[in-house]
Amino acid sequence: MTARDTHDEEPRETPPAPGSLLLDDQLCFALYAASRAVTARYRPLLEELELTYPQYLVMLVLWDRDGSTVSELGKALQLESSTLSPLLKRLEAAGLLRRERRPDDERSVALHLTEAGTALRERAAAVPTAMGDAMGLTAEEDATAKRLLRLLTAHVTQDG
């Protein structure tokens, strides 16, 4: 049996031994495998919208908070502006958003959806349901998974 085969098995009932170097005992591998699987499952849904997964995340924020600044977007997505800039340029070139310097602060850039960007929201409305079905979690499991992942993120990003 390979490491690839073991991720399809039921989770073990006992915790791994401290310091275990078995692949399946590593939380990081479970996170990595889940992230890759989920992102791959998004791909065909997002191709229909002509978006990449990172572009979809940007659009999710803007559909909720049109007019956000690049700084606010970076904070929401936990991304640096150097990572966001190419995403925003592509979305702007696709006609989905426009970037505007804020009149009250020339250093700050606000992001506004275009008509096409706003209209895309309707086409994207089926994506969360399709992904929820694909994940096969109950509402309680979904909430627990998000809570645990947010807790994990908070712990590993703490200073010190």
UniProtKB/TrEMBL annotation:
Protein name: MarR family transcriptional regulator
Any one GO biological process: response to stress
Keywords associated with the record: Cytoplasm, DNA-binding, Transcription, Transcription regulation
PROSITE patterns: HTH_MARR_2
Basic and acidic residues composition bias: residue spans: 1-13
Domain HTH marR-type: 24-154
Top-rank taxon: Bacteria
This protein's record includes keyword Zinc: no
InterPro entries named among the record's database cross-references: HTH_MarR-typ (IPR000835), MarR/SlyA-like (IPR039422), Transc_reg_Sar_Rot_HTH (IPR055166), WH-like_DNA-bd_sf (IPR036388), WH_DNA-bd_sf (IPR036390)
Cell compartments where the protein resides: Cytoplasm
UniProt-annotated stretches for the region Disordered: 1-20
Sample GO molecular function, one term: DNA-binding transcription factor activity
Higher taxonomy: Bacteria, Bacillati, Actinomycetota, Actinomycetes, Kitasatosporales
Annotated organism of origin: Streptomyces griseoaurantiacus
GO cellular component: cytoplasm
